[in-house]
Amino acid sequence: MPNCTIGNNCNIGQNVVISPEVVLGNNVKVQNNVSIYTGVICEDDVFLGPSMVFTNVINPRSAVNRRGQYAKTIVKKGVSIGANATIVCGNDLGEYCFIGAGTVVTKYVPPYALIVGNPGKQIGWISEYGHRLHFDKNGMAICEESGEKYLLENNQMVDLKGQYEGIKKEVLQNLNEVLDTGAFINGPLVKQFANDMESYLDAKIVIPCANGTDALQIAMMALGLKSGDEVIVPAFTYVATAEVIALLQLTPVMVDVDPDTFNLTADIVEKAITPKTKLIVPVHLYGQCAEMEGIMKLAEKHNIWVVEDNAQAIGADYSFSDGRKVKSGVIGHIGCTSFYPSKNLGAYGDGGAIFTNDEELGKKIQMIANHGQSARYYHDYIGCNSRLDSMQAAVLIPKLKRLDQYAKSRNQVADYYDNAFKGVKELQTPKRFENSTHVFHQYTLRVLNGKRDELKKYLDEKGIPNMIYYPVPLYDQKAFKSPVNDHLKLENTEILCQQVISLPIHTEMNEEQMEY
Questions:
Q1: Cα(452)–Cα(471) distance, integer angstroms
Q2: What is the rounded CA–CA span in Å between residue 329 and residue 338?
Q3: What CATH code is assigned to 1-153?
Q4: Which InterPro entries does the record cross-reference, listed alphabetically (predicted)?
Q5: Residue range 28-41: average pLDDT?
Q6: Residue 64 bridge partners (DSSP)
Q7: For labeling, which of 121, 295, 334, 369 is most exposed (least CB within 10 Å)?
Q8: Sequence-distant contacts of 486-492: CB under 8 A, at least 24 apart
């Protein structure tokens, strides 16, 4: 064992091979017939089970001398490796992970992971005392022996921290510019971001604002709608869309959605149009567009406004039958989006924007977003105070440059999931609408066997983040209870609220996370 380091209180069994330059920390237990080759570093409290082996090269050949290719393998504190396991060199093992008997480890193992099989796959998490951890919906688990609490650091649907690493330099540079100039409100970076968005969307006017809900409210205020005017909105969506309609004393007319795309279709909308209908609000749910060509034809025929809720589909392309491709958000008369941090284009706080190609509408929207001012201290409209601050623009500028790449990464995750679930008859994977690209704000499955909640419980116990978007139809929300909605039951909406479940999908996901 030349040039080896062996710590205090180590226990080494019979027929153990320890090659030169191996490092064993304190209290390492090495069982019989273990082989530890050059390049292995075991930290304190590691357990190496009988007949397990570390390799020292990836592709050994008797006739080829590969000593110069020895790869380092670090076994962190508290790791346990079962009998007859093989650790392929160069794959570090995280703190307190547990490698089952006979497992072949071919890639990095995260801390506290439980790995079994050939090749090794993660099947759960384990405590420092060696007990399986069962996480609740908040990502919390308690060791049954020690009572220690464990919190999943990555218990999230979106990895914003990982994404930040790729834009950190630009973000910090922009933030320093804001701090150095003191231009916190309506500064140069806000104007730059608006210009960048106009170019990206091919939109004449982009008005940044404080959040996505404000964007919807300001857009509707600009249309001159009156109390009692009807607004068609999907019943299967987030509350903000209908909430704004009600706040403006308009009448939300809640309609069903297509069960495969989760979005409005022209056929569904047409059945809900009455002489009182003044506005249609298609919500591009989960990352792809509603059937906008048909909806725009209906709007033109009946002289109805269209405001797109584009909070979940920024960057998606819509293809018209004449070959035109248009970005979501600039198909209708007005488009609205949110820059909530978890969105595909997310700030590090709240933010939103309004888009339009109608210059007259754009000027009115700009005024309403700034207290209705046409000039300082001259107010032409009742307005509000809704602005995107420069600190958020500092974050959004570099993110916008990468938005298409983010969508590509999300599609790669979605393709992986699609292949993984192929042949599972109880699961329906997301359907792509042929006229729209999909940017996969969410990857949403339908669980067809009535066991959605059972699946959710299983995922929670495994520490796998998941969400249900959305568990209750809008018409069943207490806030929207009225004589009109009391007996409303929409078939597809009712089914989807019982079936849908969304899995983690973000730009930084690696194959190991997807596989787990």
A1: 11
A2: 11
A3: 2.160.10.10
A4: DegT/StrS_aminotransferase, Hexapep, PyrdxlP-dep_Trfase, PyrdxlP-dep_Trfase_major, PyrdxlP-dep_Trfase_small, Trimer_LpxA-like_sf
A5: 95
A6: 61
A7: 121
A8: 488/235, 488/254, 490/235, 490/236, 490/254, 490/255, 490/256, 491/256, 492/236, 492/256, 492/257, 492/258, 492/259
pLDDT digits (tens, 9 = 90+) for 423-450: 999 999 999 999 999 999 999 999 999 9
Domain ranges for the chain: 1-153, 161-401, 403-515
Query: 140-197: per-residue pLDDT in tens?
Result: 889 999 998 887 765 556 778 889 989 999 999 999 999 999 999 999 999 999 999 9
Q: Say how far apart CA 383 and CA 324 lie, in whole Å.
A: 36
pLDDT value of residue 504? 93
Q: What is the CATH number of domain 161-401?
A: 3.40.640.10
Asked if the domains at 161-401 and 403-515 fall in one CATH topology, the answer is no
Helix axes 390-401, 403-420, angle to 10 degrees: 60
pLDDT, tens digit, 9 for 90 and up, residues 58-73: 777 777 777 767 889 9
Longest dimension (CA), the chain: 91
- Beta strand 325-327 with 334-338: parallel, antiparallel or unpaired? unpaired
CA distances (Å), 291 to each of 258, 335, 442, in order? 10, 15, 19
Could you tell me where the DSSP H helices lie in 182-311?
188-201, 212-221, 239-247, 266-272, 292-302
Residue 335, Cβ density class (10 Å: 0-12 exposed, 13-18 middle, ≥19 buried): buried
> Residue 177: what residue type?
E
Instruction: Name the token pair of 97.
Output: 């992970």
* 3-state SS class at 403: helix
Nearest to 441 by CA among 420, 422, 467, 464: 467
Class of domain 403-515: alpha beta
Contact present, 161 and 364 (Cβ < 8 Å):
no
* Residue 235 pLDDT: 98
Distance CA 114, CA 124 (A): 5
Helical axes 188-201 vs 390-401, angle rounded to 10°: 30
Structure tokens at 512: 């190991």
8 A C-beta contact, residue 114 and residue 124: yes
Nearest to 111 by CA among 84, 92, 129: 92
- Closest by CA to 444, choosing from 457, 461, 462, 456, is 456
